[in-house]
Structure formats: structure tokens, C-alpha cells
Amino acid sequence: MNNLVHVFEGKGLGPAPYRLARVAYSQAGTHCDYCGTAIRNVFWVEAANHTTFKVGCDCIAKTQDTHLIRVVDVEKRRHAAEMRKVKAAVILADLRVMRDNPDTETQLSALLHPKGYVRFDSHNRDENGRVTRIPLTGWDYFKWMFKYSGAAGHATLHKWAKQNLK
User: Fold this and answer.
1) Which residues contact 108 (CB under 8 A, 6 or more apart)?
2) Does the pLDDT of residue 19 top 80, yes or no?
3) What does the alpha-carbon distance between residue 6 and residue 67 come to, in Å, rounded to a whole number?
């Protein structure tokens, strides 16, 4: 016979097994029903008798309830991915506004490419017969990064553009 008692059951929160009922992120001002600590991300857990209680992810991790821990980890990863998508969409929208503003081209064209890249003009040569190098501008950088970058590149471009636009 197994005499082990789940830590939530031992605290009087309801009988095992438990399931994740819902999650509320950024819910400042509430506390964990298990340990009393203030929590921001609230995981509502439902006991076998259908009572629900709220706990933080740290208390769930301490339970050693592998099923509940796995479900919470999946939910946290899902939420983090959703937040990354929202952030990327906000950055992309801001970059579109910058791109469509005629002042952006004017200001960034006056800057050199941040990586120092050049293009080669094979039709013009210098006095030694070498192909002429033409420095790329900040506007060239902006256009290329906007068109070919993913979310991380867009975030880098956004930060750079914010620093260089007045």
C-alpha cells in the first residue's frame, strides 16, 4: 500500500490527482495558496474533488508531480512563444512606420552602414586600376535588414534605427 500523500493534499488543498485548470499571467497582488508567497503568474489547479486553488510555478516544481510539472512547463513555453510573437509583431509594425516615413531615408542615407560594408562598382576603377568601392549607407542597411531578417534581426534593426533617428 502506498502511504505517500501529495504535498497539496497534506496542506488541505484537496485530494490528488490534480490538473491544471487555467493560468493567469501578470496577476500581481495575489498569493500562493500553498506557501503564501506573492505570485505574479497564477496557476489554478483543480483537485479530484473539483476544488480549485492557486499556486505559483515554483511550488508546482517542488511537488515532484511529474504530470503537473510537465503540463505547467508546456504552458509556460506556449505563453513565452506567444509573447515573442506579440513583441515581434509590435517591432515589425514600428519598422514599417519608420520605413514609410520619408525622413527615415534622408536621415539614414547620411550615415554609413553600421558594419562598414561596401559595394563594388566594376564600371569605375581608381588610378591603380582597382574596382571602386562605394560605401553602403544606413538606409541600405535598413532596407536589407527589413526585407531579409527574421524577428531577431528586426529587433536589432529596431534598436539601431531608434538610436540613429531623431
Assistant:
1) 137, 138, 139, 141, 142, 161, 164, 165
2) yes
3) 13
Report d(CA 55, CA 42) in Å as an integer: 6
Q: What is the pLDDT of residues 78-101, one digit of tens each?
A: 999 999 999 999 999 999 999 999
Instruction: In whole angstroms, give the CA distance from residue 7 to residue 59.
Output: 10
Query: Beta-carbon neighbour count of residue 44 at 10 Å?
Result: 14
DSSP letters spanning 11-38: TTS-PSP-EEEEEESS-TTEE-TTT--E
| CB contact at 8 A, 43 and 23 | yes
Q: Is 156 within 8 Å of 145 (Cβ atoms)?
A: yes
